[in-house]
Design a protein that fits this description.
This protein has about 300 residues and is an alpha+beta fold. The chain has three domains: about 55 residues, RNA-binding S4 domain (Structural Genomics Hypothetical 15.5 Kd Protein In mrcA-pckA Intergenic Region, Chain A); about 100 residues, Pseudouridine synthase, CATH 3.30.2350; about 110 residues, Pseudouridine synthase, CATH 3.30.2350. Helices cover about 20% and strands about 30% of the residues. It has six helices and 17 strands. The strands form four sheets. Strands 7, 8, 9, 10, 11, 14, 15, 16 and 17 form a nine-stranded mixed sheet that branches. The chain is globular and about 60 Å long. It starts with a strand and ends with a helix.
């Protein structure tokens, strides 16, 4: 059984949806098909109000069993050995299959290119230790076996993994460095989005200015936590949304290449040798194209 404590008073289905990062409909199905307990009492209704601090216990959410196809999609493999793979993910590639995206994902490509992948996260997420948004480019680590997966996941949890992002944001940021410490949860006005909310999960983002332009700033970011859409939400929150972000920015979208956000650096200890591994990758052409527009103003 998996357990957590309600951080605010909320309907049970909404609590499960937020905790497992699933839809409300999926959460309601969990309540109907498996045992969910609130402070030791079996829950029967999705709309049951759960008080702040109550203990929720349930089996982990399991993705519906589906036949994920192998697809011969080219991959930019930065590093590979018997334990781990590092991929430079391109724009427009969803990491794993989900309703509406059963083909063309990174997982479809991984199944074609690699015979062995971890299955800790089920049949729809083989090898996937962490994720980045579909329109965020850059480095991801993939586990080839369960032991490697558990080691890498623990490093992430203990904040030993080093991840640096590069972003182009609207406006000119004055301080050279800064930290955004603001909790993130589901946007109460639009549950498809995340937002800074009073009772959200702890979220901390550190940034450093690399270059300033007339109407934008190039920054480096380090995540202390890994909340969904964290960088995009935090930069919107301080009034500097990521350039070309169609969801969290009200500025004009320049093209369909997605937000100017790139996972540039990735560091972790090797699951077997415990050696420190460090990787970097260049900005994609789509990012550079937009960056040059602001540079040349």
């Amino acid at each position: 059984m998996q357990e957590f404590f309600a951080e605010e008073e909320k309907r049970l289905d909404l609590l499960l949806a937020d905790f497992f990062h699933i839809s409300r409909a999926q959460a309601q199905k969990m309540i109907q098909t498996q045992e969910v307990f609130i402070d030791g009492t079996l829950a029967k209704k999705s709309g049951q109000l759960v008080k702040k601090g109550a203990k929720v216990q349930t089996k982990p959410y399991e993705e519906p069993v589906m036949d994920v196809k192998k697809e011969n999609i080219p991959l930019d493999i930065v590093y590979e050995d018997d334990e781990v793979v590092v991929i430079n993910k391109p724009k427009k590639m969803v990491v794993h299959p989900a309703p509406g995206n059963y083909e063309g994902t990174l997982v479809n490509a991984l199944l074609y290119h690699f015979q062995n992948l971890s299955d800790v996260n089920g049949s729809t997420r083989p090898g996937i230790v962490h994720r980045i948004d579909a329109d965020t480019t850059g480095l991801l680590m993939i586990a080839k076996n369960n032991k490697a997966h558990e080691f890498l996941a623990k490093e992430l949890e203990e904040k030993k993994t080093k991840r640096k992002y590069i972003a182009l944001v609207h406006g000119v940021i004055s301080p050279d460095t800064g930290t955004i410490d603001a909790p993130i949860g589901r946007d109460p006005k639009d549950r498809k989005k995340m937002a800074v909310v009073e009772n959200g999960k702890n979220a901390i983002t550190h940034f450093k200015v690399l270059e300033r332009y007339k109407r934008a700033t190039l920054i480096e970011l380090v995540l202390e936590t890994g909340r969904t859409h964290q960088i995009r939400v935090h930069m919107q929150y301080i009034g500097h949304p990521v350039v070309n972000d169609p969801v969290y920015s009200t500025h004009k979208v320049l093209d369909d290449s997605g937000q100017c956000l790139h996972a540039k650096e990735l560091g972790f200890h090797h699951p077997k040798t415990k050696e420190e591994m460090h990787f970097t990758c260049d900005l994609p052409e789509s990012f550079i194209k937009i960056l040059n527009l602001y540079k040349n103003e």
